[in-house]
Amino acid sequence: MEGKMSSTMAEDAVDYRGFAADKSKTGGWVPAALILGIEICERLSTMGIAVNLVTYLGGTMHLPSAASANIVTDFLGTCFLLCLLGGFLADSFLGRYKTIAVFAIIQTMGTGLLAITTKLPQLRPPLCEAAHANCKRANGFQMGMLYLALYLIALGTGGLKSSVSGFGTDQFDEKDEKEKSQMAYFFNRFFFFISIGTLVAVTVLVYMEDEVSRSLAYGICTLSMFVAIVIFFSGTKTYRYKKSLGSPIVHIFQVIAAAIRKRKMELPYDIGLLYETTPEPSRIHHTEQFLFLDRAAIVAEGDFENKVALAPNPWKLSTLTRVEEVKMMARLLPIWATTIIFWTTYAQMITFSVEQASTMERSIGNFQIPAGSLTVFFVAAILITLAVYDRLIMPFWKKWRGKPGFTSLQRIAIGLVLSTIGMAAAALAEMKRLSVAKASGRNTTTLPISVFLLIPQFFLVGSGEAFIYTGQLDFFITQSPKGMKTMSTGLFLTTLSLGFFFSSFLVSVVKKVTAARYGGGEGWLADNINYGRLDLFYGLLAALGVINFIIYIICAVWYKPKKPKVTIEMMNSSVGNAGAEEKC
């Protein structure tokens, strides 16, 4: 009777009242779908805003092109950086359910405020007297209201992304084979539906923003988020909840703090003298790298001052296994650092590339393609590349080499190469566009050159993302300690954040350094890109990509995987769990 009773209860999960979760009444597909809905609406809102924001900043707020690009990249960078805050709050204080609820409401408030700021004339500068002439820039109050809306959205997005996929995972019992297979299917559908959300954002919403009403489009985003929140709350009684085990970030800081505290102590010759209480099957073999951290496992006087069941103060003494976990995370950092430049390249696809498109011929018959909708080729490249890789490359590679596809490091390398080629193609396309601008007149509103000239750069960088995103995800999940999977996913997401921030930094530096030499004093990144040398900026990014790729190869050769044997089941579960941590 007891065995039968336990088989109906979900492993390590409780219901909304705090009792053991009954599988027949909680979890499964329906609650997971309710959680999925809120992520789809988040993706719809964030992408619908981000991919077309640069045209609003330049065309309506009358900001220079470089400033507009930096506002967009800073906004997206903040979105991903705040994922760490959301994850910390979920792991340490609020739990995933409350974190999703709180930050979803914050994002809805931000999107609603953005709809208001784009609607009220008082929150926008007056129209230009003529095309690109006598334009008055937005004042401090107008920009302040816009920033308030954007960063409320960024805060909400960061909190949501840190918890949505994890809470979706909580609805399935990994020790139940039936539910485990359902979870894998759930994440496949998760990726599919958020991709659909992205396509709707870059097509329907962008068209509405440009041709109907920007405030109406943002209002639809606000309403969809509100409906998604109501639906999310409706499932409260059917969700499964798992107790937090604490934040991995805190554990890392504890090891570092203990090592610093004991920095003057000598390491014992016998590693067996270091503190270790982890059960034998769960221990990690000692390594010779980062030996400084081993000092955190030296037993010293005062380490057991709390005297609770003889447990040590974690800020003074750590087990050797926990030290090795921190070392494993440290070994990921060189690969982490060399993938940041890709996301700097990616940032150009939703900033300067969109601005390029806005100056080119975009008509198909009587229909004019919105400049922001050019990113549909970017999304299409990702989906096509993933399909080709899954259906053609993987079977061929398995037949030829006996391996189920490229390794994570190989996929990252391919992504870096494709993005570098993409920037070279972008430089060539811009050279052609500038030659037409010079011949037709640099103040010409629509140049007589097809926007489809930009498709190669969108496709190359999009294909690169398909490889590098899945490669990074695989690498950071499978090469991190078991107890730090969430932390490693957050580490992966910070590469996106830093890539966007580095883009802002690079744009500012390039504009300042080149200001006195090109474009009548405006530099490579002139306020009107027809007077600048965006092709040289793209060329600089391509050169940085080559240098970064060389450094990456050195780091990849240096890196030695600590867990060469991973079961297929563990891989599917881990990648599935993290795969839902989608970007904006």
UniProtKB/TrEMBL annotation:
Name the source's superkingdom. Eukaryota
Signal peptide positions on this chain: none
Q: Which PROSITE patterns match?
A: PTR2_1 (PS01022)
InterPro entries per record: MFS_trans_sf, POT_fam, PTR2_symporter_CS
Segments traversing the membrane: 71-90, 96-116, 146-164, 184-208, 215-233, 332-349, 369-389, 409-429, 449-469, 490-510, 536-559
Q: What family is this?
A: Belongs to the major facilitator superfamily. Proton-dependent oligopeptide transporter (POT/PTR) (TC 2.A.17) family.
Which SUPFAM superfamilies does the entry link to?
MFS general substrate transporter (SSF103473)
Please verify whether the record's keywords include Transmembrane: yes
Claim: Transmembrane helix is one of the keywords in the record: yes
Q: Where in the cell is it found?
A: Membrane
A Pfam family found in this protein is PTR2
Tell me how this protein sits in the membrane.
Answer: Multi-pass membrane protein
The name of this protein is Uncharacterized protein
Keywords from the named record? Membrane, Transmembrane, Transmembrane helix
Q: Name one GO cellular component term.
A: membrane
